[in-house]
Design goal:
2 strands, homotetramer, 8 helices, membrane (chains A, B, C, D), globular
Chain lengths: ~280, ~280, ~280, ~280
Amino acid sequence: MANFKGHALPGSFFLIFGIWWSIKYPLRYACKKNKKVCSFGSKVGLQRLEIIEGATKAVFALIGMIAEQFVPDGPHLKLYNSEEKQWSHLMNWQHSTMYLFYGISGVVDIITHTTKAVPVAIDRMMLSIAVFVEGFLFYYHVHGRAMLDVHVHLLLLVAVFGGALCIFLEVFHRGNIILELFRTSLCILQGSWFWQIGFVLYPPGGGPEWDQMDHSNMLFITMCYCWHYAFSLLIVAVNYGIVTWVVQTKMKNGESLEMELLKSREREEDSEDEI
Amino acid sequence: MANFKGHALPGSFFLIFGIWWSIKYPLRYACKKNKKVCSFGSKVGLQRLEIIEGATKAVFALIGMIAEQFVPDGPHLKLYNSEEKQWSHLMNWQHSTMYLFYGISGVVDIITHTTKAVPVAIDRMMLSIAVFVEGFLFYYHVHGRAMLDVHVHLLLLVAVFGGALCIFLEVFHRGNIILELFRTSLCILQGSWFWQIGFVLYPPGGGPEWDQMDHSNMLFITMCYCWHYAFSLLIVAVNYGIVTWVVQTKMKNGESLEMELLKSREREEDSEDEI
Amino acid sequence: MANFKGHALPGSFFLIFGIWWSIKYPLRYACKKNKKVCSFGSKVGLQRLEIIEGATKAVFALIGMIAEQFVPDGPHLKLYNSEEKQWSHLMNWQHSTMYLFYGISGVVDIITHTTKAVPVAIDRMMLSIAVFVEGFLFYYHVHGRAMLDVHVHLLLLVAVFGGALCIFLEVFHRGNIILELFRTSLCILQGSWFWQIGFVLYPPGGGPEWDQMDHSNMLFITMCYCWHYAFSLLIVAVNYGIVTWVVQTKMKNGESLEMELLKSREREEDSEDEI
Amino acid sequence: MANFKGHALPGSFFLIFGIWWSIKYPLRYACKKNKKVCSFGSKVGLQRLEIIEGATKAVFALIGMIAEQFVPDGPHLKLYNSEEKQWSHLMNWQHSTMYLFYGISGVVDIITHTTKAVPVAIDRMMLSIAVFVEGFLFYYHVHGRAMLDVHVHLLLLVAVFGGALCIFLEVFHRGNIILELFRTSLCILQGSWFWQIGFVLYPPGGGPEWDQMDHSNMLFITMCYCWHYAFSLLIVAVNYGIVTWVVQTKMKNGESLEMELLKSREREEDSEDEI
């Protein structure tokens, strides 16, 4: 969907996952150091969490695929227009393919954490492949469009391929908090940048259009991308700080973190509702 | 051989190896975890298997080289046409060179697993080099052809260089099941994509030709490549599931896996016959 | 600030840090081997040092940002010129963004070494990101300028991306003296190259201008870059030699290194004053 | 020196080192496994060998630099021709710079193995830098020449950057026989390719010139490069086989390998004389 909503949808998905990760990983890290107080750190609890995460990913991917296929001007599962002798709605099909691989990654997550027959690192490998495929399709996707349009999408590729590489490294360094936070920050960057692309290419509310060929617009957008990343780092840092502070406070009070975890989940659902 | 058969031949080689690996590596992984029941896991058995695999690789490479050299319009080992003062049949010679390196890799496999004087990781290093050389030659191979022709070959390079990198990593992480399955999936992708190239560039049965300069064809082909990979992942996953299920059933029955292994080999030969 | 001072300022920052590192890392390495004599090697002392270093980095970044914003022809925090309907002073804003990320890195350094809640490797990760962002912005920064101007900036990218990669590796190999010395040499290279860029593009004292389109100038500048690196390696080697010699002499005399450390700090401040 | 000798000289240097390494590393590997019989494996002996190797490297680099500077049409240490207001003999200066970094690497080798104050991995790091600088200068070196000329030099870069990467990995995996053999094969490839470049661009004995713009020449040369590598792999394999066989025979006879080592050195010097 080459319109505002078509960028806001994936943007929201990435933002939700990024913000969730920015709570989950610091929480796990803090719990690992203070084993007594956290019931969160239990193996069964973590596994259940991973399964829920995988299922959410798969559902998001399904929503994305259905949206791309069955919007009014979508392909409705029709790939080849035999009357006009040409492919129909290739853009929507490409987006569907991107969602498909995230869906596979979600399913693999569920399988990995429900059975013991599969090596756990497979979930990271598959996520890395999904992210790489997204970048791979984007790379050819924007061929032949206006300069600014191409540029904003290519900038996205830095986050995408950076993320794919980071997740691939996690196959070998599983549970490395540095890589997990790095991935989180790139995920939030991707999410917020999708929204930015929507605002730049399809100004909502009939705002003024951006001059697609203006060189200074390109320079500004590149810099803007860095600001998004600084902002993304800030979110990760703030959430890290809050989570660590809460865990340490709990540790002193000797209370269970169970409740806190529930709250954080609710908060997550709230942010989901907002978007 | 720039025709349908010239792409179907290597495609079949890669498919056979890919499907074989998608049985072998899950089998070894399942056996490692259930050591009692598997006679497959024995060191001598595995070594013999590696030698057979190496010999098969070398034979396939030899068949490929002979086919490229002695087809009716081939070079018949003649490199320079001194009458016309120019190189003759450079394409066939380039293909022969690609096969040559796979042949070397096969020979190195055999040597590695028959003598103890050679470090074992050499087999992966040599395979990585062979795959890299294939990609290296392909990269310059397609210089100056039609757009779609170039594009379908360049897409192949993603699988080829990805494979070379993955195998190079195996030099340091030998026996890592994640890397082995990743390599397997890329190998199947290469095999099926060779068939796809054949169908696109030389439609068999006098089908309609593809418009080589149509931009939407390029977009479709890129997406199609991703579908091939999704399909390849499916094959690996299904075979992994079957193998794991069989091993676990056997484990319960306490029977030897010897018979199963024989069957899997037969199945492989069947699929070889089909192609 | 596209003038001589605008290049001399960051150049001096990098030189100061590079030369400081070329003393610090050999000193720590020598002390680790001769634990008895060095009070420098104490954990608390090292931590305090890291905090001072982080604070210095943050202050340098702040100076850079203020200089870029409030020079007479600077943007004075104004981003959009609504009269002329275009972005104003984008160059200065880009430079400010580069400094911003180094500033974040400095702040993260301080946080990392004052609290135990944050994994230590975060400081390297953030520095790696800061260096990468510098390179990323430079890459698009020079779009559309004269050939020599582009070339001298692109050469810088080799040191920048090399540095980013090296620091990223330090996340996994923290305290590896080889990587630390390599980073040091690249940092000095960057510093001296910024000065060189200033001299080439804005010859001070009304010297003769360089012909921006002359091919032989490009060849010379490329070679000159290598000489700068050879020079940078020499500085690192000489400082390494002096530090090691001093530590070994002290070891024999059994004196504390405390004094020496103080001196090295003073020496550093001197070189700061000079620039 | 843009002539046949200017390519034969570095080619010979690389060949000598490559062939020497193809004896040294298998010898060390075989000796490590059969510790009793080899006096070669002694620490002091190995260290002395490394020092000799470093000194040889430095001397070769010095010969190269002097040759580039003081050939009849060389720059004779003059960099700027102030009469014609342009740089003089930039090519020779670039070659000198390449040799310079190999010289530094040789000196670093000597320092590393004579004192204990320097971490040993520095020798690999410096060699990696030297190889990278060679590739870096070559990349810009060939700008604006004829197609075939550019192509044969760019092909060289595959071996050069591959070698730089391989040696960089050795910093972390020192003594890994796979990487050492890989480096050896790339070194021989570089050596033989320098000779090939000489024959292609400056056919000795007044042979027919190659058509620099013929596309099929480019295709042939690319393939030829692969054959050189196959040949290089063969040399490494044969030398590996001979060395291993000799060591195993000696082991049975219980004789010292001292004599064998002397012979191999003499053989090396012979091949040096020939060239």
